[in-house]
C-alpha cells in the first residue's frame, strides 16, 4: 500500500495545477484572437527562458529573462505583422540569433528553439484557420495520452521505453497513450467533420507529443537538472508541462502544410 501511495504522491499538486491550467487554456482557446495569441507567445517565451537557464546556468542574471522576453515579443510581433515566407524567415532568423549565444550547445538550443517557436506558430495558425474545436481536440490528445501513460505506467509497470533518457516511461504507458488517442480521434470525427483518417492522425500527434516529452528529458539530463523550473506545482516548469504540446503542435503544422488535414475535411 505504501508503494502505491508513493507512486501517486504528487497527484494532488499535479491535479490542482492541471485544473488551473485547463481553465485558463480553455478560456483562451474559446476566446481566440489576440487573447489566444498572447497566451501562446507568453508560454513560448517562458520555455525559452527555461531553456536558457538550464543550458547556461553560469550566465549573468537577466540573460535568460532577456532571451525569453525577446522570443515572446518576436513571435507576437512577427505573427501580427508578417505572413507566409516572411514570417517563417523571421522566426528562423530569431532561432539563429538566439542559438548563437550558446557556443557549447548551439545545436541543441537551435533544435529546441525551432520546436518552441514554430510550434507556437502552429498553435496560433490552427486556432485561426480551423477553429477552437480543433485546438480542443489537440489539447485533449496531449492531456489524454499523458494521463493514460501516467496511470498505466504506474499500475501496469513493465519494460521501460528508454531508461537512459526517461527512466519513468514504460511501454505500457506509451501504448496506453496511443490507444486513448485513437479513442479521442474517433470521438471527434463528427465534431470535426473528418473521416476515419482522423484516428490515425490522432495517434501520430500523440506519438509526436511523447517524442517531445522524451526530447525534453534528454535536455534536462544533459543539463543535469530535474525540472526545467519550479513555476508549476506538481509539474515543474512550463517546458515540463508543455513539452508534449509543442511537439504535437509542430506535427499538426507539418500535417497541415502537407495538405493532410485538408484532405480529412473533404
Short description:
By secondary structure, the chain is mostly helical. Helices cover 77% and strands 3% of the residues.
Report on this structure.
This protein is mainly alpha-helical and 266 residues long. The chain has eleven helices and two strands. The protein is 77% helix and 3% strand. A two-stranded antiparallel sheet has the order 1-2. Helix 7 (132-156) crosses helix 9. The chain is globular, with a radius of gyration of 18 Å.
N to C succession of SSEs: HHHHHHHEEHHHH
Unreliable segments of 5+ consecutive residues:
1-7
Distance between the termini: 52 Å
User: Taking Cα atoms only, what radius of gyration do you get, to the nearest Å?
Assistant: 18 Å
- What percent strand? under 5%
- Helical percentage: over 70%
The spatial strand order of the largest sheet comes to 1-2
The profile of the biggest β sheet is: 2 strands, antiparallel
Number of helices: 11
Q: Looking at the structure, what is the overall shape?
A: globular
Q: What would the average pLDDT be, to the nearest integer?
A: 82
Structural class: mainly alpha
Number of strands: 2
